[in-house]
Amino acid sequence: MSLTSTEFLKVANHTAEHFGFQTVEQLRKSPECKKCVTSMPHTVTGTNKKLDSHGGLLSAGITTFCDEKLYALERPVLLYSFEQVPRTGETAVTFHIFNVERSIAEAILIHATRALANDLGFSNHTVRINSLGDTDSITRYSRELTNFLKKRLDTMPPAARELMKDHPLSALAHLVEQNHELAYRSPNPLEYLSDPSRKHFREIIEFLDMSETPYEIDPKMLGHHECYSDAIFSLNINIEEGEEPAQISARGGRFDEFVYRQTRTRTPAVGAVVTLNNSKAPARAPRTKVTKPSVYVVQLGFGPKIKSLMLIDTLRQAGIQVHHNLASDSLSTQLRDAEAQGVRYTLIIGQKEFVENTVIFRDMNVRNQEYIDQDTLIRRLKRKSSLVA
């Protein structure tokens, strides 16, 4: 299949909006941003933008977060934008989630990028994932990697030896790129994760298992050590023999420490970039279509969050737009938001519903609720023709 840039952006717009992402134009209309009078200082430059492997598109989200005063939003910030990849001019969509420390942020990003790939017709794909861990983890791993490589300098290519002067992970990245046998004998970074990083990574793997996502843990999948921390992931589009190369690519990860070094403020951050390869960005991006969903999905707990994310995707496939706040850990906050959004129906998944594979279906107009299974839920919502996009 062959996608145009305009088609790619139209589909990306719909997918991003469904998973709760907003443009900077939408976000800066909030009262908090309007009242904020100063931008957040940062030191993001063209030089350190090169560290994110996306021509600076991932790290450019930090400048938007700071310059557009989105930091004033003391809640999860889900931001998306349409971009042109520097130097190549290819079309891309970027996704960023700020202010969410929990692993649900990576789960949302992975699910959203997979949904976009499916919507574009690339349903045969695999998630590759790895983790370098937090600062403590990277320090421990770098020490072990340095010892391993120093003992084998004589067998290393000259370029890798030179990169050792910069950082052992830079040398390892070169060895992986060259498919050198030392790369595959080197220490596994997952064995040096701190307890918090190990727990964080384990939760992401649990999400992949629960959602039946095809994935591969790849200890040699690396991002620049000054940019990425904790989880790193990419989407591998599986191509049959004789088929043309994949038209899209997707890669992302967590970069909390990078944000801290550029702003001196602790702000959890994850991001992903989906690129339409060998394309040219259109002269005009499609207009954002703001929908008014009549359904709100409420969840409470790790399992219910994942189940809710899967339900949201099912509703997307059924053409039913929804509101949600998957990053929230507060039931009362979500219920208040549902009231404020003026939705007709609220779908609630707690631990009981998670175990029984049901949802609480609440009609906000008549104030009654009942337990129903997901198949019944979809049929009922589809009967409400006004809910289907």
N-to-C series of helices and strands: HHHHHEEHEHHHHHEEEHEEHEHEHEEH
Q: SS-based structural class?
A: alpha+beta
CA-CA gap between termini? 25 Å
Quick one: overall form? globular
Quaternary? single chain
Q: How many beta-strand runs? A: 12
- The CATH architecture of the largest domain can be given as 2-Layer Sandwich
Task: Provide an overview of this structure.
The two termini are 25 Å apart. The relative contact order is 0.15. This protein has three domains: 5-133 and 194-276, Bira Bifunctional Protein, Domain 2 (BirA Bifunctional Protein, domain 2); 135-191, no CATH class; 295-383, Rossmann fold, CATH 3.40.50. It has a seven-stranded mixed β-sheet, with helices on both faces. It has a five-stranded mixed β-sheet with strand order 9-8-10-11-12, with helices on both faces. Helix 1 runs antiparallel to helix 6 and helix 6 (104-119) packs parallel to helix 13. A hairpin with a 6-residue loop joins strand 1 (77-84) and strand 2. It has helices spanning 5-18, 24-27, 31-35, 46-49, 57-67, 104-119, 135-150, 158-163, 168-177, 181-185, 195-210, 256-263, 302-317, 331-341, 351-356, 374-383; strands at residues 77-84, 91-98, 125-131, 215-217, 231-237, 248-254, 269-276, 295-299, 323-324, 345-349, 358-363, 368-373. The protein has 389 residues and is α+β, with helices and mostly antiparallel strands. The chain has 16 helices and twelve strands.
